[in-house]
Amino acid sequence: MVEFGVQVTPTEQVGLHRELVAAADEGGVDLIAVQDHPYAPSHLDALTVIGDLLARTERLRFFPDVAPLPLRPPGLLAQSAVALDVLSGGRFELGLGAGGIPRGITGIGGPERTPGEALEALEEGIGLLRRLWTGSDRVVADGKYYSLNLRPGPLPAHDIQIWVGSVGPRSMRLTGRLADGWAAPIPHYLPYDAWAGANAIIDEAAKAAGRDPSDVLRIAQVVGTITDVPGDTDTTRGDAPLRGTPDQWAEFFARLATEQPFRTFVFWPEEHNLTQITRFTADVVPATKALLS
Question: CA angle, corner 198, sides to 195 and 201, nearest 5?
Fold first, then answer.
């Protein structure tokens, strides 16, 4: 089974976000991804925006894409995630990252860490999040990066998934060992031709950890525009946005689903407008499902 989602950039255009999400909901997609860059001056807080949009929908699932753990330490993030999940009846998932923009992290007051330290902290944090979500016993931890002495509050309404936004080989291996999914970065950060190799690393790491690689959900996130006329959709290399007809988009998604283990596809429209969302839900999604049936 494949799923589909739409990305939202949490700017001050609150009315537009609500309109686009309502259209996505009516169109039957499964997920809404909300960018989470708290240091971006044009962005509202992603978790607050998700809370607003969850309250206006009844079926859609939402996730921050992706939450930088250095700015939301595990104890606080666990509680925020539980609150959103309980209030929505189990419709919140957690996209999580080590903090891929160090200047942004330190600029807003977060810790300065090397890439290796950030990944160590992410691994430590994932373990703490799971402990806080699965029991009522006090969680006491004195780790290298996080210390906790906390009795968890309410449990989440469902098993919150952790989808890691991995970019490099070491983070891919972490994803294969520990995560419920890989929220593949947009091609600007990880070019198309690197996706197959990344999936292979995740598969190998999952097997080495005694896991079934298919238990790690693969989420492809694609920036582009749905057009009326055929375009250049060479996605074998590079990072150019995908600009093509609904059939070209569907062929690309179907190829990813057959040649690689992607099962979820998130559309990042270059221009956020109602036409792009409705074309995605009405044309691209059905055409993709038809190719995969």
Answer: 155
Q: What share of the chain is helix, strand, coil (3-state, %, to 5)?
A: 45, 20, 35
Q: Which domain holds residue 100?
A: 3-292
Chain segment 242-252, per-residue pLDDT in tens: 999 999 999 99
What pLDDT is attached to residue 72?
A: 92
DSSP-based three-state secondary structure for 218: strand
Query: What crossing angle do the helices spanning 169-178 and 115-134 adopt, rounded to 10°?
Result: 10
How many whole angstroms separate alpha carbon 108 and alpha carbon 105? 6
Pair 65, 221: CB distance under 8 Å: yes
- Residue 273's pLDDT is 95
The CA R_g of the chain, rounded to the nearest whole Å, is 19
Report the distance separating Cα 253 and Cα 263, nearest Å: 9
Q: What CATH number corresponds to the domain at position 239?
A: 3.20.20.30
